[in-house]
Amino acid sequence: MRILIMRNAESPAAIDASLMLGAYxxxxxIEFTLADAADPEGIIASSFDMAVALGGDGTILRTAKMIRxxxxxxxxxxxxxxxxxxxxxxxxxxxxxxAALAGDTVAEERTNLxxxxxxxxxxxxxxxxxxxxxxxxxxxxxxxISRCLFALNEAALTRGALGWMIDCELSISGxxxxxxxxxxxxxxxxxxxxAYALSAGGxxxxxxxxxxxxVPVAPHSLIARAxxxxxxxxxxxxxxxxxxxxxxxxxxxxxAVEFPAPIKRLRVQRGPEPTILxxxxxxxxxxxxxxxFFEHTEPVD
Length: 301
Known about the structure:
ATP-NAD_kinase_N; six-stranded antiparallel beta sheet; 32% strand; Tumour Suppressor Smad4; Rossmann fold; NAD binding; alpha+beta
């Protein structure tokens, strides 16, 4: 068995926990690799049997990005500011990890995203072949790597640094829904419904939901509302030709993604395999909602 330990190197508590966990795994003759979440270069996450993420939700998101669709389970233990996705650290890193190794945790399958980006000047046929997953198509490796992205929480297409509003034409599974003018659009998973999508006015969605949530950001409209899709739907955003549209910026799980040319189109669908999060003595999703977002209110008896 091989374990990947991903830690937030800016957290002294996470560093201490990683050293403690490493000592425990060594005592059990379990092979492990220790890496900093901010600099995981050279690690092939799919070669591990389990990943332990020591930090906040950001550390879990970075770990999930490394694992992508390989179904390597992630045990998150909170040593950060917000740990909505992570387990608490009250019982200690060794106890939680030992329970996961013994199979005494609950595996939650979380929907993630596969994001395809087309920029101005990109070849249409090459883009469509990439979206279709055509293994026989002649697709440049650099093109595919830079244009096919992973997210656990969301993809956010927003206005750029100049602050100009953007026009997003929204289509779902080939049907035109409409054009939304505003600060942008967030396409979120159920997991991401408690992140940027929530701040934009989207609904809170139970984590086992497999569809997507499309939320306008500050729309210049009285009727624009969030849309919750079927699990098999494909969401497409097409930008217009204004100066603001040419400055649009893509953020994936909170991180800006740069491209050599303005973004033309975004296609988002459910990933082929879920991200697996391990729960250790975890509270229910609805209890977490109360303690994280409504802690100022008292529970009703």
